[in-house]
Specification:
The structure holds 2 protein chains of 2 kinds. Chain A is an alpha+beta fold. Chain A is built from 3 helices and 5 strands. In chain B, helix 1 packs parallel to helix 3. Classes of the chains: A alpha+beta, B alpha/beta.
Chain lengths: 106, 337
């Protein structure tokens, strides 16, 4: 189990234990964390599981592939530290990860 | 009012296969979809991406799958109603009456909702001010390109639509192409043409920046964009075109009195009927214990739902399970005999 913290745009945060191997998106959906829609179910086709990854983590985790970066173009208010949470796979290395959800997903 | 045996909502792979499963049982159906063609998510989200988990099809794209399904259901001469969204579903004794935003109405004892994640709509600009200009000077698609002649257009986006319309509209309008990063994603040929236009001073490209504000009362006078380094720039513009892809909205489905589970419709996994008799849901939009959002699951779901549809549409006939390999009835319906 890995601790992931989900913050919303107003600063409310919730830390949950997510099973390794799930995506950060699935962790949110299974635990009823609001702010992540994941309309396409994790096929990198909709940009509605968009999150901002805390700076120090953003540089540590594996870089987004081209298709993900293209999809982030479509997201609501993308920033430099934007990622699609369906592409962040939980492992021990992510223990303590903090992601912030945007004001809205679409 | 058009009468049929089954009204299918959604022309994605699951809706198309529903036509087949109903058709081989001798039932008529019609299909309604908000998009302008069949395929649903397969066509809108990943037409060129290979799918590897269709049984007996090692690899095919979303577009190929859609075309194969259309070929498979061709014998049934099904009527498709595209560019129409189902707004209302009402009961009238034993039949359901469906009305669309295009003022068409249908009646049938059965409805199969194969609506995916809802209907596709363009993703709108995040800026709140954008709303009041929408449809007047802010657009999310080009319906009539003559409207965009002799304008000062700011085009937002970095994909194919933004690039293609920049090329096309630059023939008779002034274009600023604005994107949040320096890289554009498009066909190599398109990209080189864009670069040439910029070099020749025919268009301006602004990157990496995003829309900060819109100035103007009735009409847009200018827009302000903000670069990554914090600098802002005011650009003359009277029209905005924004291409940030499509989003899926559940829309009116949520108001039909069906038991919902978040954004999905709860069904039983015996015949995929909802809490309303004669209304079924299949594919990504339905949920039941163990549900997987796979195309093949949707195929199974409509096969089972079609049996219950038969019983409701032909209450005086006995349903008999038949194989396509041996049933003369089915082969006739497929035009094989």
């Amino acid at each position: 189990m890995t601790k992931i913290t989900y913050k919303d745009f107003q600063g409310n945060s919730k830390t949950i234990e997510v099973e390794n191997g799930l995506s950060v998106m699935e962790g949110a959906i299974q635990n009823d964390i609001p702010g992540i829609d994941a309309d396409c179910g994790g096929s990198m086709a909709c940009a509605t599981c968009h999150v901002y990854v805390e700076e120090k983590w953003f540089n540590k985790i594996t870089k987004a592939e081209d298709a993900e970066v293209d999809m982030i173009d479509m997201a609501h208010e993308p920033k430099k530290n934007s990622r699609l949470s369906c592409q962040l796979i939980v492992s021990d290395a992510l223990d303590g990860l903090v992601v912030t959800t945007p004001e809205k997903q679409s | 009012m058009i009468k049929t045996d089954v009204i299918i909502i959604g022309a994605g792979p699951v809706g198309l296969f529903a036509v087949h499963q109903l058709g081989i049982k001798g039932l008529d159906s019609i299909v309604i979809d908000n998009l302008d063609k069949a395929g649903g998510q397969c066509i809108e989200l990943y037409p060129d991406k290979p799918i590897y988990d269709i049984p007996a099809v090692p690899e095919c794209t979303g577009e190929e799958l859609t075309n194969s399904l259309l070929k498979q259901i061709k014998p049934f001469n099904t009527k498709f109603f595209y560019n129409e969204r189902v707004d209302e579903v009402n009961q009238d004794k034993d039949v359901w009456i469906v009305k669309t935003n295009n003022k068409n109405s249908f009646s049938a004892p059965n409805i199969i909702i194969a609506g995916g994640v809802g209907s596709f709509e363009p993703r709108k600009l995040a800026l709140k001010d954008a709303e009041k200009f929408e449809g007047k000077s802010i657009f999310y698609a080009v319906k009539d390109k003559n409207f965009f002649k002799n304008k000062n257009i700011a085009i937002f986006g970095g994909g194919d639509s933004a690039l293609d319309w920049t090329l096309e509209l630059s023939k008779f309008s002034k274009i600023n192409l604005i994107h949040r990063r320096n890289e554009f994603r498009g066909a190599p040929h398109t990209l080189s043409e864009i670069k040439k236009l910029e070099k020749d001073g025919k268009i301006s490209i602004k990157t990496p920046c995003q829309l900060e504000s819109i100035e103007g009362d009735e009409n847009i006078k200018s827009i302000t964009i903000k670069y990554d380094d914090g600098k802002t720039e005011k650009i003359k513009a009277d029209t905005i075109l924004s291409f940030f892809g499509l989003i899926m909205k559940l829309g009116p489905i949520a108001e039909w009195g069906l038991n919902m589970n978040k954004k999905t419709i709860a069904v039983n996994s015996e015949n995929f009927e909802t809490n309303k008799k004669g209304i079924f849901a299949a594919g990504d939009i339905c949920s039941y214990p163990g549900k997987l959002k796979l195309i093949l699951s949707g195929f199974h779901e409509v096969a089972l739902a079609s049996v219950e549809c038969f019983k409701r549409a032909r209450p005086n006939e006995k349903y008999r399970f038949e194989f396509t390999t041996s049933s003369k009835n089915i082969q006739e319906r497929l035009g094989k005999k």
